[in-house]
Amino acid sequence: MAANKAMSRGAFVLFEGVDRCGKTTQATKLVESLNNSNVKAELWRYPDRTTTIGKMIDDYLQKKSDSDDASMHLLFAANRWEKKKMMEEKLSAGVTLVVDRYGYSGVAFTTAKRLPGLDQQWCKHSETGLVKPDCLMYMEISEEAAKKRGGFGEERYETTEMQRNVREVFSDLREDWWSIVDADRSIEQVQVDVEKIAREAVERCKNGLTLEYLW
Ligand code: NYM
Ligand code: MG
Known about the structure:
Distance between the termini: 30 Å
Radius of gyration: 17 Å
Structural class: alpha/beta
Bound molecules: 3'-deoxy-3'-aminothymidine monophosphate, magnesium ion
Low-confidence stretches: none
Strand content: 5-15%
Number of strands: 5
């Protein structure tokens, strides 16, 4: 093996997008299908509401508590930092991580509040040094299609205006390497694209790909 050849590892496959775009549905189906074809895969999601920090986030999202916007942004980021080491360990052990939201949502949601001082640059700082995904599927859904999938829930941020702003920040954040998936279509149609994109990333990482870090 050549000295500079990266080791075989699992892939970090990420789903991002506004609420109701089908991330959770697709991520769940993808993990199932990967495991069925002998690719070790786990479903992760952020916020991870099971940790101590995650419970504080959950209270905030459910409006059981209120807090300063900057400190909430940092808690969402800390919720990723507390799992960084485990993420690296899983990936190097050959496990593919299918992740439902990550730091891109972190930046998009806080920036979308349009608060003085909390601009995109500020928001990105707390994510700097976290593992970069090997593949990012941005689930693009129109406002109309998202609305047809049922009304908003009761959680914080689930308003038309906020979702509009989030969509805008996401399009600002977009980079060339992102895969844009047309999420207006049926679950089955979207699944075909998702499988293809994810399996290509799994293959690349299996063949050895150096882990990168944000941003
Ligand atoms: N959210 C999610 C943030 O505001 N910052 C973050 O860093 C992350 C990961 O939490 N409306 C927001 C986006 C969602 C909400 O996510 C809960 P979900 O996927 O609905 O459980
Ligand atoms: Mg939600």
